[in-house]
Amino acid sequence: MTFTIKRPTRSVEIVTDLQALQDSIVAASDAQEAKGKNGVQALRQRAAELTQQVDESTLVLTLHGLNASQWNQIVVKRTDSKGNRLVKDWPGMISDALPVMLSTAHVKTDPDTTVELTASDLSELLSGLADSQVAELMQTVQVLNTPATSVPKALRELTSPTD
Questions:
Q1: What is the pLDDT of residues 42-51, one digit of tens each?
Q2: How many whole angstroms separate alpha carbon 106 and alpha carbon 13?
Q3: Rounded to the nearest 5 degrees, what angle is found at the Cα of 25, between the Cα atoms of 16 and 18?
Q4: Which of 56, 83, 88, 108 is the most exposed place for a label (fewest CB within 10 A)?
């Protein structure tokens, strides 16, 4: 019998038109406030159009966890010693990890068409992200590269037959 390791995967959505996102949120809020008043349908239509524009500008990255060796090399490369403590360069780790973690990429509105992204493309994309987008990527990279490796005791107890 042959076993292979199936690494965890997760998709991350990167909105590239943050202005359209902000405008869609404002339009949706305006539509909510205008309930029952004249013009509410136009506000809803505007919110829908802007949401479509946001979706058309959203890149969906499907990432997979790395094996321990690959991840450890990135961590070691991007960790410095500052006095008595170790400091991790998370943006640098993401920049190094993303090209090797990327399984697929597509535009949200066209999941059947693959977007080809080089390491240079990913680096340029990362440099333009908002802090909250970088934080989400950092969390995803960390979760994928530190997966659970055994079934927790509480899960075993929950799923075991009771007498």
A1: 888 999 999 9
A2: 10
A3: 15
A4: 83
